[in-house]
Design brief:
With about 475 residues, the chain is an alpha/beta fold. About 45% of the residues lie in helices and about 10% in strands. Helix 12 crosses helix 14.
Length: about 475
């Protein structure tokens, strides 16, 4: 039997724990959709540089390894100035229109969208060279947080989001990104119930009748990097069905079976996924985990946009991309595949090792497929252009070729920035063995940054792009 002193002590501890309870932030609803408001690509400021080009960066997942590797690409883009055929000059970074980020890559993407050039002043110290993982663990096991973690809706990812606010985002929300003049930043998470991608942009939140502007950037980053079992899902409120939301206009065209071009099947599948969010009565809460489970490269949205563009253009209808002479996609992929010694031993690997590998292998193969699909689109558009420009092309003799007249004439570039592109085998081996965690040595961070810049500048596709637009590098990075 407890003594009075023990009972009083237990009561005091219980009161302390309950007093420390916290609940998750609740994202607010919208009652009506306004396409001219919110964080959308169509509402972003027009860039004077490269007005006829769309430049997209995709930052993969991979913890601090991904954050540092993607940061290295931003550094080289910032420090590299090019001169056009008419003598006009500009930094490469000023041509970027869209950045997608997943997991570790989401931190670099969001931080650049928020701070712009100021990011380069202290991002290394504030995040890259900090033991973020250790700080999350310390807070998780701190008695001050036990009440919140045990009794409330405030999970480990909410605790992590608060830390990200303190060390990097300073409480900024998507309203802050909307007011800025930088590229559109799209952070990806995964809906754990359906496996669908959830992108943190207002068009995605329109289907949920939710207002993105009040959502903190730290919660988006926490959602995108919420590794299952290690961190808790991030929960957002779904008000779908309460704001008269309508599907985008391209849907009718893309789904038309009479369309002479192949219907945008991938985009239509994505539409089905998004429609599942439109029933807030049956799905009032959406639970988000690491974006890498659905798309570790942040590439699926890009592929869908290109497919929508092609389908709508095939019908001769106008699109927001019609004035683009070229679309450049720079895929920044920090995927690593450390070697194992499993096949040299009769004893099989343990359960934890198998779980990690079983999660990673499908993600790796899915990432490879995404890059190949992009290259397939490049090849298809090039082939259609060659047919149109051929002297033998005569639509009057074969009306079935009419869709080729309206097919995209845009030049599409796929530039791969990944570890296998390194010429130095020793450096590849070093980077390929780096773990997926939120703590790396300062040396590893610096080598990742340097490798990213070198791979980009050495890329044959990148050099071909500069040659085709008549540009040359006039101030290469030191």
């Amino acid at each position: 039997m407890f003594s009075r002193r023990s009972a009083a002590l237990l009561l005091a501890v219980a009161v302390l724990l309950m007093a420390g309870c916290a609940s998750r932030p609740v994202n607010p609803p919208v009652t009506e959709i306004h396409l001219d408001k919110g964080y959308r690509w169509v509402n972003r400021p027009q860039k004077e540089l490269g007005a006829d080009s769309l430049v997209i960066l995709t930052f993969s997942g991979g913890g601090t390894r991904a954050a540092a590797f993607s940061y290295g690409v931003l550094e080289v883009l910032r420090n590299t100035q090019v001169e056009g055929p008419k003598g006009q000059k500009g930094r490469l970074i000023d041509f970027v229109d869209v950045i997608t980020g997943v997991s570790g890559g989401s931190f670099t993407a969001l931080a650049y969208g928020l701070y712009g050039d100021k990011l380069f002043d202290d991002y290394e110290q504030r995040f890259l060279k900090r033991n973020v993982q250790g700080e999350i663990i310390t807070r998780t096991f701190s008695p001050a947080n036990w009440g919140s973690l045990a009794y409330g809706t405030y999970g480990r990812s909410e605790l992590a989001a608060d830390l990200y606010d303190e060390i990097l985002f300073n409480g900024a929300t998507y309203a802050d990104l909307e007011r800025g003049s930088g590229p559109l930043i799209t952070v990806m998470a995964t809906d754990i119930s359906t496996g669908s991608r959830v992108g943190f942009t207002q068009p995605m939140f329109d289907g949920m009748c939710a207002d993105l502007s009040a959502v903190r950037l730290s919660r988006a980053a926490a959602s995108s990097s919420a590794v299952p079992l290690v961190l808790s899902p991030v929960t957002i409120n779904n008000y779908g069905g309460t704001c008269n939301y309508k599907d985008p206009p391209w849907v009718t065209v893309a789904a038309d079976p009479k369309n002479p071009a192949r219907p945008a099947a991938r985009a239509m599948k994505r539409l089905e996924e998004m429609q599942s969010f439109e029933n807030g009565k049956e799905r009032p809460y959406i639970h988000l985990v690491d974006g890498g489970l659905a798309d570790n490269l942040g590439m699926r949205a890009v592929l869908e946009v290109l497919e929508e563009f092609e389908a709508v253009r095939s019908r001769g209808m106008k699109t927001p991309l019609d004035n683009m002479k070229r679309i450049i996609v720079i895929v920044v992929n920090s995927l690593s595949s450390p070697k194992t010694s499993w096949d040299t031993s009769e004893r099989p690997p343990g359960s934890i090792e198998i779980l990690i590998k079983a999660t990673g292998v499908p993600i790796d193969r899915y990432s490879y497929e995404s890059v190949e699909l992009l290259r397939d689109i490049v090849a298809r558009w090039d082939m259609m252009r060659m047919v149109r420009e051929s002297p033998a092309f005569d639509v009057t003799k074969d009306p079935s070729l009419k869709s080729l007249i309206n097919a995209p004439s845009t030049d599409l570039y796929a530039i791969d920035v990944s570890f296998p592109r390194l010429q130095d085998k020793d450096e590849f081996d070093y980077l390929n063995d780096l773990p997926t965690s939120f703590v790396l040595s300062p040396e590893a961070v610096d080598r990742l940054r340097a490798a990213a810049g070198k791979i980009l500048l050495d890329s044959p596709d990148f050099k071909r792009l500069l040659q085709n637009v008549g540009a040359k590098i006039v101030t290469p990075p030191q």
